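Consider a concrete sample entry:
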Amino acid sequence: MDKVVFQTLGCEGGKQIGIATLNVEKALNALDLDMVRLLKAQLEAWREQDEIVCVVLDGAGEKAFCAGGDVRAITEASRANPGEIAPEAQTFFTEEYQLDYLIHTLGKPVMVWGDGIVMGGGLGLMAGASHRVVTQTSRIAMPEVTIGLYPDVGGSFFLNRMPGRTGLFLGLTGYNMNGADALYVDLANFAIDRDNKESLWDALAEVHWQDDANTNHDLLSQALNGFSDDNIADNSRLKAHQARIDELMAGSLADIHSCLSALDDDHLQERGEAWLGRARDTFLAGSPLSWNLIEAQMQLGTEMELADCFRMELGWSVNCCAHGDFCEGVRALLLDKDRNPQWQFASLEAVTQEAMDKLMTSPWDEASHPLNTL
């Protein structure tokens, strides 16, 4: 079975749309290194082919576009080499970020059909696309805090561009967004009923695509707007509660920890904010090292170039595997599934500056950086 299925859709005038479908349905289309390499090679080929006017990324099955990266191999390699950067970890993250950057910079329009679960590495694919479609079943999150990581795959770039303190909230709590939430924070820019997928494909085949990429961006937008569904776009909890989120995320990390810890279920129920209970619980179950990394990530603002964000994240990610809580987080959540991680630091106050410096210091200089060609 092919882990990624590549097809072309013939269009009016002899143009073609390249369609890449993630095809490991049982694993919710989670990305492994083979899939990353297949996607990168095909996207690079399609970029150079004049007859390909647009690229579509899709996921097999009804449940997920992509539920993240397949982190088991990275974890096993890192556990076998404690305190060292495992080559498998460096290779996976390097090539994943190269793929994400390629999507951001492909030039030709890239559409992601973000139906069902879109998490972690799946959001890395989606965030880089020019046309990001959500449906009524989209469930989008970056829950890396629960596995001792942080929102990577370009999160340093896009989380800082969200309204108010929403990016920090999403990173710390792993909050599960619906389609309307994703539209509100600009992780999506089109909402379409999932039942209209085949009709959309038919419509795309009838578009009179041109040789100019900018024109084709506009033509794709027009086609997607023809299927726009306001019912999906109109119920963003993040938008409705923006002021409350900003209030909870104000001040220092210690202030935020105190605010979230103090949330009482009965009081939340009275205020119609029961959803915040789950956000609180996810945060409190997360790694204190991750809390600090996410806060540091949110201090970056919007000045860093995209390539620099990926270069910084590569260092952080391999360091999380070698020195941080990543392996323990994956063990507790995905391998042993006891949901009882033994984090290096039992509390926020216990985290040392030395530990944070170790995580945030790049293992490479500029010349030797694996992503120095971005």
